[in-house]
């Protein structure tokens, strides 16, 4: 096996792998906001693709003792700011990690967030 840079000619094979194994679980990765990407080949055939992308992680620290109305207004202001800044930066998604189910439900009901599949994972590298 060898690792090499992505080439435009790899798109068809990457799409075929995605269609067979991942369609319905997540969208085919776009080429927007890429820091780096690569393919793995075995015997000249693309068998894997990986990408590192920039993204906007939203972090909110909210006083839980506030009345619900105030919480929603504060979140609305923060989400609007995050959306505005992300659009200016050309970022297509906002991502966040939610620790509280009631907060998750507010984000879904009032702000258009959705739960993504899989398990959020982090690796600290320095």
Structural topology:
Elements: E1 2-5, H1 11-21, E2 34-42, E3 45-53, E4 56-57, H2 68-89, E5 94-95, H3 101-111
Parallel strand pairs: 4-5
Antiparallel strand pairs: 1-2, 2-3
Task: Describe, in plain words, how this protein is organized in 3D.
- The protein has 126 residues and is an alpha+beta fold.
- The protein has two domains: 2-53, no CATH class; 56-111, no CATH class.
- Helix content is 35%, strand content 21%.
- It is built from three helices and five strands, in the order βαβββαβα.
- It has helices at 11-21, 68-89, 101-111; strands at 2-5, 34-42, 45-53, 56-57, 94-95.
- The strands form two sheets. A three-stranded antiparallel beta sheet has the order 1-2-3.
- A hairpin with a 2-residue loop joins β2 (34-42) and β3.
- The protein is elongated and about 60 Å long.
Strand order of the largest sheet: 1-2-3
Shape: elongated
Mean pLDDT figure: 91
Helix content percent band: 25-40%
Task: Summarize the model shown.
By secondary structure, this protein is an alpha+beta fold. The protein is built from 3 helices and 5 strands, in the order βαβββαβα. The mean pLDDT is 91.
Question: How would you describe this structure in keywords?
Answer:
3-stranded antiparallel β-sheet, two-stranded parallel sheet, alpha+beta, 126 residues, single chain, 21% strand, 3 helices, 2 domains
